[in-house]
Design goal:
- The protein contains six helices and eight strands.
- The protein is an alpha+beta fold and about 180 residues long.
- The protein has a five-stranded mixed sheet with strand order 1-2-3-4-5, with helices on one face. Strands 6-7-8 form a three-stranded antiparallel sheet, with no helix packed on it.
- Strand 3 (about 50-55) and strand 4 form a beta hairpin.
- The longest helix has 12 residues, at about 65-80.
- The two termini are about 30 Å apart.
- About 20% of the residues are buried.
Length: about 180
């Protein structure tokens, strides 16, 4: 396993572009919009890689067949001193991830990616809102001051507002539910 120099991050972007999953956090590392690093099986022609976002979100991707890389990843996870949230793609990484969980090195969680159903939204909104609220673009001070574990200030450098868009539902003028995305 090798640490890929920043100037070579484009080598794995080609693979990221073909993935049918949400890779926005990994892309933010590859484009330099977020801190992080990339480990690969080969510095000349990577076919397996592990992208680590500074926040702890990670992507294990590429070909799950390089024994040396798999052994290095096993050692990496076994000696990890902090939490990382691993998303593995393609499905071929499942035996490796399942083995980590079976050994107590990792815990299994399921990531859900939602899609917007416009027809259902229109049907529900025609009935009227349960609570009177307004949905507005998230003001800059609210975006920068969000507290919590999964908030914009931990995802992008140096200023999250330039890398994401946010909307907030306000109930009686009080922020009730913010949401943001790249």
């Amino acid at each position: 396993m090798f640490k890929l120099p920043i100037e070579n991050y484009g080598m794995v972007m080609k693979t990221i572009d073909t993935m049918e999953i949400n890779t926005l956090f990994a892309r933010s590392v590859l484009t330099g919009d977020a801190e992080g690093c990339v480990f690969v099986d080969s510095l000349q022609s990577p076919s397996s890689f592990y992208i680590v976002h500074a926040y702890g979100m990670t992507l294990l991707a590429g070909k799950p067949t390089n024994t040396s890389f798999i052994e290095s990843m096993q050692d990496y996870f076994a000696n990890l001193q902090h939490d990382e949230w691993v998303q593995a793609y393609p499905e071929g990484w499942s035996p490796f991830m399942n083995a980590l969980a079976d050994q107590g090195i990792a815990k299994r969680y399921t990531r859900l990616n939602f899609t917007f159903d416009e027809a259902l939204y229109r049907e529900l909104t025609q009935k009227g809102p349960v609570t009177r609220c307004s949905v507005l673009p998230t003001p800059l001070p609210l975006m920068q001051g969000m507290d919590g574990a999964v908030v914009p200030k931990y995802f992008w450098k140096p200023d999250p507002i330039h890398h994401c868009i946010g909307f907030t539902a306000f109930a009686n003028g009080i922020p009730a539910s913010p949401a943001y995305s790249l």
